[in-house]
Amino acid sequence: MNCARAVKHLLRETDWLLLVSCTAAAVYGLLLIYSASASGAGGNPTMQLLCLILGILTACAVSTINYRALTRYWYLLALPTVLLTALTFTPLGYEVPGTDDRNWLVLPLGSQNFLLQPSELLKITFIVTFSQHIVWLGSRIRKPLPLLGLCLHGALPILLVFLQGDDGNAFIIILLFAALLIIGGIPLGYAAGGTISLAAVIPLVWRYMSPDKQARFLCLFQIEAYRNTTGWQQELSVTAIGAGGWLGVGYLQGGDDNLYARQNDFIFTVAGEEFGFIGAILVLLLLGIILVLLYRVAQKATEPTGKLLCSGMLALMASQAVVNIGMALRVMPVLGITLPFFSAGGSSLLTLFLGIGIAMSVYRYRRSLY
């Protein structure tokens, strides 16, 4: 009887709306990845399906663990993640052809190799550890020395990912760092000062950027000059989306343009081309629902740790969605950022469901004091 009551309670306190919404987005993404792979763009739909199933199981399992225990023993998550990230700087590190990022590890999985991207897990770990750091400081976050400690905390993952050559994920962690500081209660004067300081160093950063990376920004403004060079991916992307019209060219009928990274960085293009404006809006709608549900859980949280964890996941998904869709629409530079739940990539999908599992844990244990 007690067992039946426990199961009933477990099911009742599961945030089914959030889990189903994320699953629906991932299933839609799987359909898009299958189409992209059928057109020769790459991607492994079978592996993506396996990671989707594992991701759902992971989210459900993590949701049964009190999130306070996850933050209390943050080092059990942080240390392995930092170690895995550090291994990318050894001969175990792998650079995917066509990129300049050495941010993968090759893991044998039966007859195939599974490419693990530790920086994806690092983003989730950073949300957990940084949230705990902010809560531990409490009102001391307004003092210069504790704030310096938070800056050093944020600098470690940013530097590690930047040294891998993964500018996109380094940028996302910077946005997470800023969002969590603001939500955590940093004085607005400090936030304004940090923004001004960041703006001041942009010319210096620009000076030391490689010509290729500078061109990624310049091609947004000098379209004709870079149309056939650095801007060719985005040129093909906006052309394909435009060709989709209202209802699209049809499922499995797109992809004749040989757009590179169609299965991950430009998965939004597949939706826009094959399902048209309606398909693109459906992507935005699903992402919007997930963000609203994460905001709802953050508002329901009864203490700062839960609010910060859910807010961090919301900031992660929102920033990646804006950057990724902006890339496809040629309003953001190509930074190699995946679209949450839609893009091909087992590491991305699994870690996103891990983060969703943490948010579901906040929902489940929001009334619990321990």
Could you characterize what this model shows?
The longest helix has 25 residues, at 276-300. α15 packs antiparallel against α16 (346-364). By secondary structure, the protein is mostly helical. It contains 16 helices and three strands. The model has no long low-confidence stretch (mean pLDDT 90). The chain has one domain (13-364). It has helices spanning 2-12, 16-38, 45-63, 67-72, 75-87, 118-137, 144-163, 167-184, 188-208, 211-218, 223-226, 232-244, 267-274, 276-300, 304-328, 346-364; strands at residues 93-94, 104-109, 112-116. It is globular and about 55 Å long. A three-stranded antiparallel sheet has the order 1-2-3, with no helix packed on it.
* Average of the residue pLDDT scores: 90
Portion of residues in beta strands equals under 5%
Intertermini distance: 25 Å
Strand order of the largest sheet: 1-2-3
Biggest sheet features: 3 strands, antiparallel
Low-confidence stretches: none
Helix content: 55-70%
Order of helices and strands: HHHHHEEEHHHHHHHHHHH
Number of domains: 1
